[in-house]
Amino acid sequence: xxxxxxxxxxxxxxxxxxxxxxxxxxxxxxxxxxxxxxxxxxxxxxxxxxxxxxxxxxxxxxxxxxxxxxxxxxxxxxxxxxxxxxxxxxxxxxxxxxxxxxxxxxxxxxxxxxxxxxxxxxxxxxxxxxxxxxxxxxxxxxxxxxxx
Length: 148
Fold this sequence. Notes:
Helix content is about 20%, strand content about 40%. The chain is an alpha+beta fold.
């Protein structure tokens, strides 16, 4: 667990609402759609895919999914330009299956409380590798909370 400063990062993203029970399926579709668009436009990836969560409503999760980019693009259809905010974050890396993320979140929130930090209501995750390429126990997810 660490506190560090990050730079604002442009992205291409799709924001939608989905039940958490369908999140894996929806993410696969969204990242594939974004990657196809970026490939057609010759836009390079500037980092791993991310998801920004604006609420924790398990029936209607408000989530932005995207890829960091180093060039501006207006997008098309539901693909929009976005930004991953800069500033101070509290972050840690979870190693293991996605269904075990809750334990890492609990540890990170305990760290936030211990350090008496005030964090934003929204948070985001970077997916540092893919379930299509590694075993579930090798998955790495970086969890980030922005400090107010």
